[in-house]
């Protein structure tokens, strides 16, 4: 297992710790899927915190730091026992922010799994004139479905020393606070936390965040002592299932996993990607069933020629739709780098070269056979 550490000196002797990540063993794909589903998955999008974050965290007692897996945000914290019934968490949360208006949020959730509804959130809002405000908010089902406005309120956790800052030269937006949580509702070893970034606000009311996959995936269960984050259960393996789904579709077929992901995501649906997949699956099924109706090549009514024309047309249509939908799936995932696109383009180029060689060879054999027939 690879492990990396970094130490950054400041007046408070702040240190930034890197997360651990294990390389994926080369095993049969079905065993890999079973392991992903039956074992907890550790966050892999961890890394060292940025220089801008370190600048923001000066003066705060921060002992842990990590880059969270979505939205390019960073979280720093330290834990101390307030008393036998309460735990104190010093928090710094920030991200690169190039908009004149917007907000960022970090919060904890006492429910069994991390989710937006039920989150006690600290939200910092940046106004167009550059002023910053940091307040407490309670995210309820009513605010999520927009039945009522999201406004500052009291919550069942104590929050002190709330502050926010914006570093102009770094274009970095951050909030900080001291959060005191009851041990009866929040576990230091399994803290459900939620984060979010949005770009619209009306006074003290943050407006809807972007509807991207990364925004919907901004939750996890974090062990504040070790810094490891884990997702348990089938519904919380979405990130891994998406990767497996994408890889299987690039090299073969990953239809069933797509259905699982769709059924486990009731709050959002990517309609174009979904309906294209259904259409592709239907066409592919018909393409396979067409072999049962294949006429003999000696058919006197041109049945074989008509069947062959339709079969080729549907096949080429499927190739175009499949390639387009895979690129759309990669765009939905929004990976941290462009390697997915380039890997898939490389695979397509390789397949094109192989197909071209086979096509040239088949035409060569056709003319060779034809010439031999003419000579006879």
UniProtKB/TrEMBL annotation:
Instruction: List the subcellular locations.
Output: Membrane
Which keywords does the record carry? Electron transport, Iron, Membrane, Metal-binding, Signal, Transmembrane, Transmembrane helix, Transport
Query: Transmembrane ranges?
Result: 15-37, 243-263, 275-293, 314-333, 339-364
**CDD domains listed in its UniProt record:** Cyt_b561_FRRS1_like
Q: In which organism is this protein found?
A: Punica granatum (Pomegranate)
Q: Which GO terms describe its cellular component?
A: membrane
**Major location, coarse class?**
membrane
Q: What protein name is recorded for this chain?
A: Cytochrome b561 and DOMON domain-containing protein At5g35735-like isoform X2
Which segments does the entry list as coiled coil? none
Residues reported to bind heme b: 245, 273, 311
